[in-house]
Amino acid sequence: MSKGTLFINPGSPRSNWLDALAKTLKVDVEVVDCSKSEEYIKLFPLKKTPAFADSEGYKLTEVLAIIEYLFSLSNDKTLRGKNAKDQAQVMRWLSFVNQDMVNAWVDYVFYAKTEESKLNASNTLANQLAYINSELATRKYLSLDEYVTVADEYFFSWYNGFADVVGSITSEKYPYLTKWHEAMKAKDTVAIALSKL
């Protein structure tokens, strides 16, 4: 039985991967393209995606909150982290990607009007990717060494957009990040689903 409706923007890395996440977690939700739904506009007048609503009137926006709620509906907690310390690391990386990195991307794509401001935003994102590359030199995945988490999947959803801003993510410049990306494409179900979009 459906737990509710997940409204997504298929072109947005903030929401285009949540359908695959819900399926991985075995959470039965109806996934609806927000641009094709009058109900979405009535329920969410600010038109923020992703958004979630159930039949009892419960509504939720903000990707990190929706991720947390999907986990609450699932018996599978591995992607979230197996203990409190692992979960804190997962939340740390989700927050870093969602705030720091996405803000640099938004600055570049939407707000940078001069070549200098575009270069500044691109350099900020390049520094963040270099930091992640150095972190991945010490472990296999973004949050933990042992297994993929939802933080890896969320970062993967943004990967191509980040690469566009910095002019590509090459193995020469980001060897560990490139290795991580190839591993994700090869075996993570959410990443595989995103690779087909």
UniProtKB/TrEMBL annotation:
Coiled coil: none annotated. Transmembrane segments: none annotated. Residues 2-78 form the GST N-terminal domain. Signal peptide: none annotated. GO terms for biological process: translational elongation. GO terms for cellular component: cytoplasm; nucleus. Residues 83-197 form the GST C-terminal domain. Belongs to the GST superfamily. This is Glutathione S-transferase. It comes from Pichia californica.
